[in-house]
Amino acid sequence: MFDFLFEYRGVIVGTIFVALIAAVIWAFFYGRKLIRTEKNDAVFGNPARALGGWHWVITGVSAILIVWLYFSWDAARAFHPKAANELCQVAKLSSAVNPIRSTFPLEKEFLKGTSLLVRENAQLSELEERVERLGFSETEKAKAKETIDLMRAAITGMTSPEYLDAETSSQFKSIEARIDDLTAKLADENYPGEPTTEQVAAAEKNARWGDSGNEIPNAPASPRGYKFDAAAKEMKSIASDFSKIRNKNENFLAQIEKLKAQIASLDELAQASPGVDELLVQNRADFVKGLTRVLRRVDDGNIFPPDALNNVQAALVKLDDEQKSQQGGLRFYDTFMMPGGQITSGSSSCSEQGSGRWLPKPSDTLRTFARISNPEIGYKGYPLLWYKMKPFGEMVDFVLPDFISSLVPGKFPRHDENGIVTPNFKSKVHDIVTGNFESFKVPMPSGHVWDSLLRVLAGLFFGIILGVPLGLFMGLSRFSKGFFDPMIELYRPVPPLAWAPLILTIFGIGDDGKIFLLFMVAFAIMVISARTGATGTHLSKIHAAHSLGATNRQILRKVILPNSLPEILTGIRIAIGVCWGTLVAAEMLAGTTGIGFVENVARKQSDYEIIWTTIIILGLLGLLFDLMMRWIIDKVIPWRGKG
């Protein structure tokens, strides 16, 4: 069934997306109409005004799903399955042209040469200021400043059109012509011709968007994709040739050689300084290193005359305009249907960046959930939620304590000289209480979800049966409140995770430690809730019960406990939520099963679909518990909020 749904996921997701939008619009207008036409004399603040409103439930749930489908790009994939592949090819071209674009003020404020010029002159000014603090003689100072001035002259010479050699100018014209030629090719409807056999095979071999571990197919799979893929390959060659161009005119090369000699002379001077303070020697060495670093950057020859690259920049602008034109509606689709990120191209693959990456698509999450829900697959060899046949004897062993067999008169049997053990009544009782007997098998739930449920229920159970009585008596007894309150309030504010390492160290990674940690969480909440409920009982009701001859036990059972129930049940509701959060943290710290364990492994593997699957499972289970508690509260204390 899930294979069928996955095969037609585009149609299904698209239909659901449109239906959800229609549901939100309908529910909104229906709700507004109801507000105008409903005749209800309930005053503001009456709890009855908050009842019903199922259309707003539809609105809220639909809105959440719309946001998820939209920002995860699942809706975009449904309406245009090839959009990601085409944007991947566009990203390839953008990535290929970036080495050239970075030279020009197209996406940043300054020309690359301008930025280098400002930076190097600032470095030289700083070095010039340091000359006065290096303890040089006047002659040495003059030599150092002469070197700095020569460096400035070399940089200035690079910016002069007078010294730009013909070969470099010719290289720029070649780059300009090649970019213009590529722009013309992009505008040609027939470029790059029919796809080759290898390209068709690669497109067929590649899975669809989201069908494999490689989220976005890298090989082009549409005419627009072939065009941008071919353009990217040509642009890679152009960018490679452009990056090799250097401003290496004869005047500049002569200045560089002179600078190297000057700096070498300064280096010898800095090292051969007898009687000079060690710190000063180090400062002189750093000064020479600073000059050397500037020289190396200048020697790269990346600064050109200001107008030398104007034609290349103009060609790039034309190419940029043409590639935007060739994208057509794809640009608008990328902007409006794929928000919160973009598709980028790496050395060998394309990937989603932004919300499309870390927010898994609902259809993929459903497929992941179906896969790990399969009991034959599960997660890490353990089902998510299934059952297994267990001998009835194991349940007897769990319920009956082993010491029962020790209470039976007599001794346990021993083997005789022939190595034969003859069982007696005492050993048979021992076999029963330990479950060591042949028994029929019964189905028992098992799996990660079941293990987490059992831990929460066990910790909550012990927290309720021990916390509620103590809380009630703390609300009724001066001794109980004074004796237990400091202990409760001492550990209650401490976050559960602060206790987790200690408890897990003492109890180990088994269930005992996790259940005890959950008990500590639930116990404090239930004590506070029960104590608040007991102290909040109206004194007039207690006096009325006394006047009618009720005993203390009857007052506790008939007056105080019913009046405390709203607080107690609210405390249980809160404790369930806190226990869930604590359990996941405990299972992430130490555990081999459970929802927290699944999420922790998925986190280490950066498997966002599994992470979101566990979050959804936890949310649904928490909602189920909360709905159960609402139902119990409505049935057990129907008088709440009604005087």
From TrEMBL:
<feature type="coiled-coil region">
    <location>
        <begin position="242"/>
        <end position="269"/>
    </location>
</feature>
<feature type="transmembrane region" description="Helical">
    <location>
        <begin position="12"/>
        <end position="30"/>
    </location>
</feature>
<feature type="transmembrane region" description="Helical">
    <location>
        <begin position="515"/>
        <end position="534"/>
    </location>
</feature>
<feature type="transmembrane region" description="Helical">
    <location>
        <begin position="453"/>
        <end position="476"/>
    </location>
</feature>
<dbReference type="InterPro" id="IPR000515">
    <property type="entry name" value="MetI-like"/>
</dbReference>
<dbReference type="GO" id="GO:0005886">
    <property type="term" value="C:plasma membrane"/>
</dbReference>
<feature type="transmembrane region" description="Helical">
    <location>
        <begin position="51"/>
        <end position="71"/>
    </location>
</feature>
<keyword id="KW-1133">Transmembrane helix</keyword>
<feature type="domain" description="ABC transmembrane type-1">
    <location>
        <begin position="449"/>
        <end position="629"/>
    </location>
</feature>
<dbReference type="Pfam" id="PF00528">
    <property type="entry name" value="BPD_transp_1"/>
</dbReference>
<dbReference type="GO" id="GO:0010438">
    <property type="term" value="P:cellular response to sulfur starvation"/>
</dbReference>
<keyword id="KW-1003">Cell membrane</keyword>
<protein>
    <submittedName>
        <fullName>Taurine ABC transporter permease</fullName>
    </submittedName>
</protein>
<keyword id="KW-0812">Transmembrane</keyword>
<dbReference type="InterPro" id="IPR035906">
    <property type="entry name" value="MetI-like_sf"/>
</dbReference>
<comment type="similarity">
    <text>Belongs to the binding-protein-dependent transport system permease family.</text>
</comment>
<keyword id="KW-0472">Membrane</keyword>
<dbReference type="GO" id="GO:0042918">
    <property type="term" value="P:alkanesulfonate transmembrane transport"/>
</dbReference>
<feature type="transmembrane region" description="Helical">
    <location>
        <begin position="610"/>
        <end position="633"/>
    </location>
</feature>
<feature type="transmembrane region" description="Helical">
    <location>
        <begin position="488"/>
        <end position="509"/>
    </location>
</feature>
<feature type="transmembrane region" description="Helical">
    <location>
        <begin position="574"/>
        <end position="598"/>
    </location>
</feature>
<keyword id="KW-0175">Coiled coil</keyword>
<keyword id="KW-0813">Transport</keyword>
